[in-house]
Amino acid sequence: MKKIILFTLVLMSSYVFAQEANESSKEEKFTYTEKGLSPRSIAVNLKGMTKTDLINKARAWRIEKFTEPKNKAKEDDHDDDYDDETGKNNSKKINLRGNVNNAICLNEDSKRTCENAFISIDVIIEDGTYTFKPKDLLFRTTYGKKKAKVKLNFDKTELYSDNREIKAGHELVPSQLEDLFNSLHKSLYNYITDQEQEDEW
After folding, report:
1. Across the strands, what pairs with 115?
2. 26-61 per-residue burial string, b: 16 or more CB within 10 A, e: under 16
3. Cα→Cα distances 61→102, 126, 175, 188, Å
4. What is the distance of C-alpha 7 from the center of its chain?
5. DSSP 8-state assignment for residue 173
6. Domain boundary assignment for the chain
7. pLDDT, tens digit, for every residue of 16-41?
8. Which fold has domain 2-192?
9. Rounded distance, CA 145 to CA 147, Å?
């Protein structure tokens, strides 16, 4: 009888944990406008998971998603300790950098061209919490008949003119950036919470 009661309690705890995690993950989505990326980061509370648990999961996700040849990015990343606002070193920052194939598509001279994008993302981890923070994105554009690199630091944007109009040829880019980072975050969240993985991006 004790074993049955214990098993029931474990199931109930897992169900509550999944509910809480699921609700947190649905609160925010990335959007991209003339003001840049918003929000700048998304924090998810996962009660019951330790800092070590989250670090191990995030590292495993990084290896699985970004090192296999069949995937769309290459591993080029590192981990750092992360100081919070008090200066105390109680967080771990996992930085992910890689190339995503055909991530950004442009309309140029009635033709659609797609370019690879170099992305940089920080995942900042504490006990029961992780923060997903896109750091930078770089892609090549042929707009204006010259190959040029467009670097987005997400606090400012090079895609909009001074009058806040999207630059010609870049109309598809804001939604593509939203889809890319929302899909990446969904992939990480699903991996950490042991949910079914999809072809997220």
Report:
1. 104
2. eebebbbeeebbeeebbebebeebebeebbebbbeb
3. 22, 17, 25, 7
4. 35
5. H
6. 2-192
7. 544 455 454 456 899 998 888 999 99
8. Alpha-D-Glucose-1,6-Bisphosphate; Chain A, domain 4 (3.30.530)
9. 7
Query: DSSP states of 45-91 as a string?
Result: E-TT--HHHHHHHHHHHHHHHHSSTTSS-----EEEEE--TTS---E
| Token digits of residue 155 | 């606090």
Name the residue among 154, 201, 141, 142 with its Cα closest to residue 176.
201
Instruction: State the Cα–Cα distance between residues 133 and 155, nearest whole angstrom.
Output: 12
190 and 197 in contact (C-beta within 8 Å)? Answer: yes
* Range with the largest mean pLDDT of 3-12, 49-58, 97-106: 49-58
**Which three-class secondary structure state does DSSP give residue 107?**
strand
* Close Cβ partners of 177 (under 8 Å, ≥ 6 residues apart): 30, 32, 37, 104, 137, 152
The verdict on pTM exceeding 0.90 is: no
